[in-house]
Design a protein that fits this description.
Blueprint (H helix, E strand, L loop, with lengths): L1 E16 L6 E20 L12 E4 L2 H18 L6 E7 L9 H16 L6 H7 L8 H8 L2 E4 L2 E2 L22 E5 L6 E7 L7 H11 L4 H20 L3 H12 L2 H8 L3 H14 L3 E3 L6 E5 L2 H16 L7 E6 L7 E4 L1
Helix pairs in contact: 1-2, 6-7
Length: 340
């Protein structure tokens, strides 16, 4: 059998509650992107691997090899099955540590592919739990399944809760965040991604330290953010109201944990965000810990205008370290499987 799994990237727009006074923390919102994406091929009958007796051969980034080993071991143990002579090839990948959720999409793609080989049906929450994703944000595992816009409600918090401290997904062993709201993204919205040539976004120990150093967030900030999400962000997605979405997102950029995430970036990022918003009044921000910058428009003409504007900034070495721009669209379907 030979097939490919294609999974989307995502924008994580903000966490909601890192205060915990109501007995819940985390929560967040974001949406899936058509590109960049992972395309991973699985093959268990290639002539080059038949009868070698190995569990698998892997062609992809070295940093992912250990994860494939671990996933296969977990599946074999959990489901009492055995894998051998599988060829796994990463044909296309999402750039890691820039805020696009690459690790979650890779892990879920591997689990889905391995389960498909054995005709095993795990729910998306079971798959996320197996690879220990969704312990802070539930956006990544939910967009893998269905794409679109996602709002999740995080985890119970406290002595008997799912979590007893503020931790990023990479360090949290909590079950995947509680799903709450899903809606298709407006298909006429266009996204520009800027991947600047600066230090990659926080991850692992650095990310854990940031959570510990800057939490809890004041309750007043959490209440303001929650109000904006419920009464502006969600209605603007349903009504395809880009202007309202832009206003709400800019407010959130300047409050709560998202303000901290932006404040930890190179100053060229905060300057660019400010200048884009003041000039064009469109949704703009960084995804997760960045440093990837996104801009959303609802017309090709506006996208071209902002693309030209950002390009001119990148060419000016006095204000920018340079980078690349990716043009993409929302993904409203989640992963796909193609059989050859």
């Amino acid at each position: 059998m030979r097939f490919q799994i294609r999974s989307p990237s995502r924008l994580h727009l903000s966490l909601i509650d890192l205060n915990g006074s109501l007995g819940r923390i985390d929560g967040g919102f974001g949406f899936a992107l058509e590109n960049p994406n992972f395309i991973i091929e699985f093959n268990d009958n290639d002539d080059s691997i038949v009868n070698r007796g190995e569990k698998f051969t892997f062609f992809g980034p070295d940093e992912y090899l250990k994860h494939v080993h671990l996933i296969i071991s977990k599946l074999e143990s959990k489901l009492n099955i055995k894998y051998e002579n599988i060829k796994i090839t990463v044909k296309k990948s999402i750039l890691p540590h820039v805020g696009l959720g690459s690790k979650t999409q890779f892990l879920l793609s591997i689990v889905k592919g391995l389960c498909y080989l054995k005709k095993i049906n795990l729910t998306i929450k079971e798959m996320a739990s197996l690879v220990e994703r969704g312990g802070t944000s539930g956006i990544g595992y939910q967009i893998f399944e269905k794409g679109g816009f996602i709002l999740d409600l995080g985890h119970s918090y406290g002595k008997n809760g799912e979590k007893t401290s503020f931790l990023p997904s990479s360090a949290s062993k909590a079950q995947p965040a509680m799903a709450f709201f899903h809606h298709v993204m407006p298909e006429n919205w266009n996204i520009l991604l800027l991947i600047p040539k600066i230090k990659q976004g926080a991850n692992n120990v650095e990310e854990q330290n940031i959570f510990q150093d800057f939490t809890p967030i004041p309750l007043e900030e959490v209440e303001k953010i929650s109000h904006r999400i419920l009464m502006q962000i969600v209605p603007s997605i349903i009504n395809k109201d880009l202007d309202n979405f832009a206003e709400a997102l800019w407010f959130i950029n300047n409050h709560g944990f998202k303000k901290i995430e932006i404040g930890l970036q190179h100053e060229c990022i905060s300057n660019l965000l400010r200048d884009i918003y003041s000039t064009f009044k469109v949704p703009v921000g960084i995804s997760s810990f960045g440093p990837g910058v996104f801009v959303i428009t609802d017309s090709e003409e506006k996208s071209k205008e902002i693309y030209k504007y950002i390009s001119s900034r990148l060419e000016d070495s006095s204000i920018s370290p340079g980078g690349k721009i990716i043009q993409t669209k929302p993904n409203n379907s989640g992963f796909s499987l193609k059989i050859f």
